[in-house]
Amino acid sequence: MTSARPLAAYLDHTLLKPEATRADVEATIAEAAELGAYSVCLSPSVLPVTIPATSDLKLTVVCGFPSGRHQSNVKALEAATAVEQGAHEIDMVIDIGAAVDGAYESVEDDIRAVRAAVPAPTVLKVIIESAALSDDAIVAVCRAAEAAGADFVKTSTGFHPAGGASLHAVDLMKRTVGDRLEVKASGGVRTRAEADAFIAAGASRLGVSGSRALLKDDVESTAAAGY
Question: Were 204 and a residue from 76, 116, 151, 182 both cysteine, which residue would form a disulfide, CB within 3.0 to 4.6 Å?
Fold first, then answer.
């Protein structure tokens, strides 16, 4: 079970489909606010957007998405522009090929460039595409993210054919970063049981596109348990 913190407060309610329209974006923001999600996660090209003034909803924007194979200065500019347009948090994708090659200094430099462009209080999450990496690479990339000043490591874009989050990856990532960084699980979190399992493994944020269905499952599971 999740802690006393409401399940919705773990959620980055996500819309990253390339075919999403302006109406889709506005509906997703409204839904995130209605559901009480922590943030709404959007593509940079849809900015600026309007967050309801009555909501505490944060705005998360992806960077270098989804391949990560962008020049570091381009990622840095993309992130800085998003912050100028209202983003509170940046979810950047590492150069996955560099990680597979074991070029971890290059990965760290890439993250460091984005961190320099969006210093605190902007929250920087680093998407490592864990399903495409070996355990050794996951550990090394998490260490690179920590050394570069990131706030979170995040499992997945949700676009890679290797898959999304796994409990094994989240556990390994959390054991690597400890309490120094937080972990976001993204890709494949659809039910209350899955959400609870990822949170128990160490995730403090969940990237979810089907938040309404997940929270409906949460309500039904809680009622069935007699809470």
Answer: 182
Q: Which two tokens stand for residue 83?
A: 């912050």
58 classed as catalytic: no
Judge contact between 44 and 63, C-beta under 8 A.
Answer: yes
The confidence score (pLDDT) of residue 227 equals 36
Could you tell me if residue 1 is inside a domain? no
Give the H/E segment covering residue 78. helix 72-84
Enter the tokens of residue 151: 């706030």
Residue 102 lies in domain: 7-225
What value does the mean pLDDT take over residues 7-21? 97
- Look at residue 71 and tell me if it is in a domain: yes
CATH number for position 36: 3.20.20.70
pTM: 0.94
Domain count within the chain: 1
Please give the structure tokens belonging to residue 10.
Answer: 């773990």
Q: Is 91 a catalytic residue?
A: yes
pLDDT above 50 for 130: yes
Q: Assess whether pLDDT exceeds 50 at residue 225.
A: no
Q: Catalytic one among 12, 184, 217, 218?
A: 184
End-to-end CA gap in the chain: 11
Give 50-91 pLDDT, tens digit per residue: 999 999 999 999 999 999 999 999 999 999 999 999 999 999
Q: Catalytic pick from 12, 58, 75, 91?
A: 91
Structural domain includes residue 63: yes
> Which of 58, 154, 217, 218 is labelled catalytic?
154
